[in-house]
Amino acid sequence: MHPKVTKRSSASRRRERGGREADRLSALPDALLHHIMLFLKAWEVVRTCVLARRWRHLWTSVPCLDLRVREDDHGNTPEDFPEFVRLLFLHREASARLDTLRLRSSNVDSAHDEEDSRLWIRTAIKLGARVIHLVGHRRDWIRGSSLAQLEHASLVSSHLKILKLSYALLHGNILGQLSSYLPSLEELELKDCFISAREISSASLKILIMFKCDIFVNLSVAAPNLVLLRCISPITQAPSFQNMGSLVTGTIILYDYAFSDIFYKDFSKDELSETTDEDDDNQRYKTRHEFGVPPEGYGLGYNDDYNYGSDIDSDDDNKIEGGHNILQSLSNATSLELLADAGEVILNRELKSCPSFSNLKMLSLGEWCMDAEFNALIFFLQHSPNLEKLFLELKLKFNTRKSLDSGVKPQGRSFACKHLWMVNIKCSEDDARVHKLAHLFRANGIPDEKIFVSYLGGKKMTEFWWED
Q: Using one digit for the tens of pLDDT, what is the confidence trace for 258-278?
């Protein structure tokens, strides 16, 4: 008789061959496994050594160390955190270069302090770190105390290319001497920082991002090789700019109310209390209307039929400091985003002395350009001869009948944009200014088929009739 044949599972056959399940993850190359470890905190990376023999020494050569500790990490982080970090650096593979260090300036329960973080930064720089991200605490940012601070001695490196600082206090010459102690720095990102330094100066800097920074002094930015600038919602005063002839892309988002004491009275602390470490990495630079709305009635005068903002020469507006040469510094850019509310002071002030934007191909403008006669908009169109794409966002709502009756007279307001092939207008429903804009563009040779309209809130306009 033939022996009885029984069907064996694939798992049984693997156990007979090797006594264990196949480990496909461990078959991946080191570079890919190290990439997976980028999403883990440092103590989690070390714990991978128990997964399999293949993982035993991988943590010693991981190119990124994330030492950020949060309040809810108590049960997961090593008990003696400074000693853990000391051993972590001590046992790293000697030939392994450290690419990125992420850390908090201190821990809320004193597991480590500012001196520990400075030591770890110096150690990372000795290991050739290319990227350093130092994070303070949002609670301290609200109080304006115990923020992350830097020392010149901690930041001297010919390798460092990217420096990201969040909830940090920057004073003295710490930013003015970047060319001296960080000669290879290419990207500087300042998020929710307190700045009392008077200058940001770097010949190597190519990318500068300033997000909701509180600027206490007349800050000047000098970066002749800067390619990308994002200055988003500065507080107290806006920075001034000089020597930025290499700029390609610029984003400026301003709120006049943030330059006044009223900003601090209405500032929502609850909004800042829900941040996680991941928010610092994944912060997306939102469009202007996602940052919040100024207190009702502030910065929005009532001097005309359209409720367009205050007189630029008023006493309140003259109190707004900084922001000098903002538009002058952007004049060589090919792509610009200039967003602000109606009646905004700095951009309107700087517009009076701004030259042509001969390289500009893509332009985004906000409500500040939508005065009753579209003067600022027409200025840009007259000084941007090579413009190809124009984006307009009309934020305010108006009475349709009143807007139509008190019409703009676009005739004679000529401009020549021979390369303009798309005008994208975003507005609220029944905003009659859309029709005024259509007349303006039509009178200057831009046909209706090049004008696209969508409603605020994501609703698309499927059919639109241009009124004569």
A: 887 655 545 544 444 444 445
